[in-house]
Amino acid sequence: MSNYPTTTESIAQALEAKTPAESISILYKVLEDPSSSSEALRIKEQAITNLTGLLSQENRAQDLCSLLTQLMGFFSTIPKAKTAKIVRGIMDAMAKIPNTTELQIT
């Protein structure tokens, strides 16, 4: 299956995955789901939060930066305040990773 449906079950499956890499993969696939109902958007926000945490724990700063680019289309479907909150969360997570100052600036 190329993507996971945007459901709470998919999020639960990602949280129960055996490895962080598996969880990250599932969460990326949830974000690829084209659903845009209010419930789907809420679940995608949750997936982004979980994904940000996992990428930060794994010290994958470049992937956090790429996530921001990947989410541009998603940001156009949600209110600006939520977009700002998500971007801030990703930037804060990146700041916790050592030696990422240059990446944060670009």
Briefly characterize the structure.
This protein is an all-alpha fold and 106 residues long. 72% of the residues lie in helices and 0% in strands.
Alpha carbon gyration radius? 13 Å
Portion in beta strands: under 5%
Number of contiguous helices: 7
Q: Describe the largest sheet.
A: none
Q: Uncertain runs with pLDDT below 50, 5 residues or more?
A: none
Spatial gap, N to C terminus: 35 Å
Give the overall shape.
Answer: globular
Give the overall average pLDDT: 91
Task: Describe the model.
- The protein is an all-alpha fold.
- It is built from 7 helices and no strands.
- The chain has helices at about 10-15, 20-30, 40-55, 60-70, 70-75, 80-95, 100-105.
- Helix 4 (about 60-70) packs antiparallel against helix 6 (about 80-95).
- The longest helix has 20 residues, at about 40-55.
Features:
single chain, 106 residues, mainly alpha, 7 helices, globular
List the helices and strands and how they pair.
Elements: H1 8-15, H2 20-32, H3 38-57, H4 61-70, H5 72-75, H6 80-95, H7 101-105
